[in-house]
Amino acid sequence: MYPKNAWYVACTPDEIADKPLGRTICGEKIVFYRPAPDQVAALDDFCPHRGAPLSLGSVCEGQLQCGYHGLRVECTGKSVSMPGQRVQGFPKARSFPVVERYGFIWVWPGDAAQADPATIHHLPWANNPEWAYGGGLYHIACDYRLMIDNLMDLTHETYVHSTSIGQKEIDEVPCKTRVEGDEVITSRFMEGIEAPPFWKMALRMNGLPDDQMVDRWQICHFNPPSHVLIEVGVALAGHGGYDAPADKKASSIVVDFITPETETSIHYFWGMARNFKPQDPSLTTQIRDGQGKIFAEDQQMLELQQENLTRYPDRKLLMLNIDAGGVQSRKILDRLLAAERAPAAPQAVAA
C-alpha cells in the first residue's frame, strides 16, 4: 500500500538526543540512535540473540547495547561484544539508509542500493534565518492516503475547522488541479473576503489590521511518497493577493510529512514555516499551538472514517470534482507501487 523505495521522515533530532528510539516505518520495526553527536544510524529493531527490541537498550561508547542481555552492535548492524560470549557468528542486523537533513531524520525502508540522499525533498525554507518553523507529531490510526486526500481537498475546512480556518468561501470558490510530473498541485484563490480567526491572529502578529477585507490563497503541493506542502496566506485586499508585498500580507507554508506506520496508521509530522517575524519565538509558539489544535480536529474524523472503511470494505466511494487532488495523487502512488513490484528485467548474457 505504500512505496518503500522512498525517503520518509522518521523522527526529529530531539527524539534521539539521549536514547534509542523504536518506530515502525512502512511495516518495518526500526531503531534509531546516535553513534556520535553528528551521526545517526537505523537498524532492524531486533536483537539477534533472543529477539528483544534493541530500542529498549542504551547507547554505550557509540554502540547500541541490548537492554536484555547486554549484546552490543555497531551502526552497521554487526555484533561486537556480549558478556561471557563470543559473537563472531551472530547474524548481522539489517541497517537502513538514514540521513539527517532540514531538521528531520529521514529513512529509506526499501532497497538500500537504490537510496540516493540527493532525492530527499528539498525544503528551501529550512536552515534559512529569514524563516521560522514550529511543528509537532501526531499518531493517527488511518491509511496514509486518507490524510493525503484530506490535505489535497481543503473544502473540509469549512466544516471540520469552522472556528479557526474554515469559511464558506472555501466551498464557493472552485479549486484548480494540475499534474506536473510526479507533483500534484491544487490551488484556490479567494478575493475580498473576511479573514477567519486564525488568519486574523496572523495579521495582528504581523502588525497588520485584522478588520479589513483580504485576499486568501491555498496552494497544495503533493510529492511522493507522501509529502504535502501547502502555501497559505492572506493579504489586505487590493494589494495583489498572493503576489502582494511582504508588508501587506501574512503567509506561510504548512508542512505535512505523512509517514506510514502500518496499512491503517501513520506518523504525522506537521508544522508551519513562515517568513514574517522569524526571530519571534513567542509567535512561533502561538502559531504552533493554534495549528496543533486545528490538526487535532482532523484526527477524530480520519480515524472514524478509517473504521467505516474497514467495516465496509466493499462499499464504493464517490469521486467528485473536489477530490481531484487526492485522486491524482493516488494515481501517482499506484504507478510507483506497480513499478516497485515489477520483476527486474533479465540481464543480457554475452554469447
In spatial order, strands of the major sheet run: 11-17-16-15-14-13-12
Fraction in beta strands: 25-35%
Give the oligomer, counting copies of the same chain as homo and different chains as hetero: single chain
Tell me the number of strands: 17
Residues in helices, as a percent range: 10-25%
Mean pLDDT: 92
The number of helical elements comes to: 6
How far the N terminus sits from the C terminus, by CA atoms, comes to 41 Å
What structural class is derived from the secondary structure elements? Answer: alpha+beta
Q: How can the largest sheet be summarized?
A: 7 strands, antiparallel
Verbal overview:
The chain has 351 residues and is α+β, with helices and mostly antiparallel strands. Helix content is 22%, strand content 30%. The strands form 4 sheets. A 7-stranded antiparallel β-sheet has the order 11-17-16-15-14-13-12, covered by helices on one side. It has a 4-stranded antiparallel β-sheet with strand order 5-6-7-8, with no helix packed on it. It has a 3-stranded antiparallel β-sheet with strand order 1-10-9, with no helix packed on it. A hairpin with a 6-residue loop joins strand 6 and strand 7. Helix 1 packs antiparallel against helix 6. The mean pLDDT is 92.
